[in-house]
Amino acid sequence: MPDQTGKRWLITGATNGLGLATAQAAAAAGATLILPARRVERAEELNREWGGQHEVVHLDLASLDSVRKAAASITGDIDVLVNNAGVVTRRREETADGFEKMIGTNFLGPFAFTNLLLPQVKDRIIIVASNAHLGAEISLDDPHFRSRKWSIIAGYGESKLADMLWGLELSRRLRETDVSVQLVHPGWVLSNLQSAVGNKTAEKIITAVSTPFAQSARKSALCTLFAATADLPECSYVGPDGFRALTGWPSLIGRSVAASNPQQAEALWNMAERETSTTA
To answer: What is the pTM of this model?
Structure first.
């Protein structure tokens, strides 16, 4: 990690897992952090552990009202904005605004939050996506699975393909600015997303089976940190260099054809603008 003294990082989802590992590394490198969190008490506890010089903000990405209030409360420049927070649900749920919960929390909430903060961002925007986007499809006519059959794989994959396309279009819109957009696939990481199963016994089995093959949140966070600090081509996709990008060290990896479609990216952006009433 290059020295981050004097820089200000905003990291969503920094209270556990990948986001926590990212925040710990950034703070250790000297960055001042903004910690938007749904569990404010946990973020405040971390702030105390890290010296108390950071800023805690309440944020629930599943509520556009919360997104707007959080963005309005944040003042000053932001050097690095890391859209890390995400959710997996084991059944179809909806956000406070009636969005399918995974696309609402993983894409529409961060989309609105980033748009509202964009005038304050000075250097880099990181979108933590996933190779779950490979093979996924988006229905712009029914992104919330109100008519289509919902499944965990379809819903999560759609939300991560949306993140990939969002990054593509955001990068295009910021082409004439000093702000860079980078996309990240953290690999197969041991995190609290295993709790999506909803069965304690099954979760223990999944964790036991995954542990020999998956990598720690600390190592997976290297992909995010690399995307946030390295000199990279615009809108690169950073992921592990190992077999099928499951584990390994940060490198540039390939994305799907669907995630590289500028027309689809623009159409998705237009849909998100309508849903969130925000724009860049």
So the answer is: 0.93
For residues 204-217, give the mean pLDDT. Answer: 62
Mean pLDDT of 125-133: 98
Whether the predicted pLDDT of 196 surpasses 70: no
**Residue 24 pLDDT > 80, yes or no?**
yes
Q: Dihedral of CA 250/251/257/262: which sign?
A: positive
DSSP secondary structure letters along the chain: ----TT-EEEETTTTSHHHHHHHHHHHHTT-EEEEEESSHHHHHHHHHHTTS-SEEEE--TT-HHHHHHHHHH--S-EEEEEE------SS--B-TTS-BHHHIIIIIHHHHHHHHHGGGEEEEEEEE--GGGTT----TT-TT-SSSPP-HHHHHHHHHHHHHHHHHHHHHHTTTSS-EEEEE---SB-SGGGGGG--HHHHHHHHHHHTTTSB-HHHHHHHHHHHHHS---TT-EEEESSGGGSSSSEEE----SGGG-HHHHHHHHHHHHHHHS---
Q: How far apart are CA 27 and CA 19, in angstroms?
A: 12
- Residue 28 CA to residue 169 CA, distance in Å, equals 32
| Known catalytic membership, residue 237 | no
Q: Which of 9, 111, 145, 156 is catalytic?
A: 156
Q: Average of pLDDT values for 71-81?
A: 98
In this prediction, residue 212 carries a pLDDT of 55
Q: What does pLDDT average to over the chain?
A: 93
